Amino acid sequence: MSLRVYAIAYLIFLYAPIALLPIFAFNDATIIAFPLSGGTTKWFGELMTNRALHTAVGNSLFIAVMTSILSTLLGVCAARAGAMYRFPMKAGIMGFIMLPLVLPEIIVAVSLLVVVVQILDLGLSNWTIIAAHVLICTPFSIAILNGAFQNLDPSMEEAAMDLGESRFSAFRLVTLPLVMPGIIASMLIAFTISLDEFIIAFFLSGSSPTMPVYIWGLLRFPQSLPVVMALGTILVALSILLLTIAEILRRRGMARVGVKDKGGFL
Amino acid sequence: MWRRLTATEGGQGLLMVSPPLIYALALLAVPLGAILLFSFWTQDFMAVDTTFTLNNYREIAEKPIYGALLQRSLFVAGCVTIVTVIVAFPVAYFVSFHVRPERKSLWLFLITIPFWTSYLIRVFLWKVILGYNGVINTGLINLGLIEEPLTFILYNVNAVIITLAHAFAPFAILPIFVALEKIDRSLLEASQDLGESKFMTFLRVTLPLSMPGVVAAVLIVFIPTIGDYVTPELMGGAGGKLIANMIQTQFLALNNAPLGAALAIVAMLSVSAISLVFVLLNRRWLKGRS
Prior knowledge:
heterodimer; A: mainly alpha; MetI-like fold; 11 helices; 75% helix; B: 2 strands; 2% strand
């Protein structure tokens, strides 16, 4: 019983900062502090007219969409290889691919910065961020897709091939429908991570910032903070929506291949 | 060659895993090698001098600021890890042992949601909570518990630790939860049948069996914490900056990439060394008992 109280208190601690977002987003004062001084929606109105912000959001959406597609493609390869084949050095190879999960992000950021700018002498652009985001999102994609591929029976694809389908169409007609919910869940998670990622984007963004980099710039100016709160409210609502869809799909995918849900993305 | 590769299961598996593997080699292994190489070069105004030298490492060893920053970073990461894991364990235990199986994924989902939502804004909101006119101070003043706002909770190491512990909380819960889920429940009954109390059963059966999860949680919190510069930048004030801030400054503000690279290498080696020692100290818990 006391454990339940503790767990609920812990959830409140986890959600406390987010819960403050809408409070200040609708608060009619430029200072982010108590006491509150009446409701307004003007901060949301300012979001609509801010051109620099729109460019930043455009960059972030492009990066997040490309990242979600590419990291899910790589994730499918790795999850399929991990679940359906035995091959030499399997544990080492899979461990290495999952390494970005625990590597400090600043290390990923500076090492790519050195390669791109100092060694290859290329400019920074949205694509440098996409390259890095695919690297850090692939392990998450794999973790989600593992659930979908784990208990897939390889003999189903073999049966399709025995009945005359080619290897690829067997995959497309038999395996793909079964793992589709996992694929969409993985794309949504990669999209959410990429959209929110700051540490790497700050190092690798070119002249045109992503949304988190733009927000970072705003945090230094007290008068722009209420707008950040309004933006944050929208972002949090959006992430919760996407994550909920991802979670529902992930569960449906596991049910489809008959795996008992052990819960959680990781 | 192609036919031989696709004929065996091992070959097919390697072929299948090769796209993510090549990607990770090109964008992780090669860049890591590049910063290692870079750390032995020096910055000469606009150009990089590529003669091999240990000067960067010598500078890091000799100037006390780098040592102090590294020490503080490791201290903060250690505190964050201890706090997160100790606070998270009961929650993982509760979800694993006291929540009905069909409700478990809902709990885990609720725990992970805040982790995915705008990191920058979450860190900033801690400033709102802990600040001079923040939620805690105005709350305590209104309750009449304090007269002056508390100042020891913003722009110092405490604030950095609180914020990071909040950010990494779900990371600690998940591995512990997975380890607890694996425990065979009949072992607990056996222990109690043999006369141990509930508490002793927890200490002598549940806790040792959950250690692989605890160790994983420690590593998964401790290692990335070193790389964070958002929280120290926003919450740390002058006295709360960490090694990652210095790496960032060297790369972006001072345009001294080789020294930044050397700092990154030193930070990574220290973290790896500590993690390795930690795993070795706990190896008796990690032996596979499936």
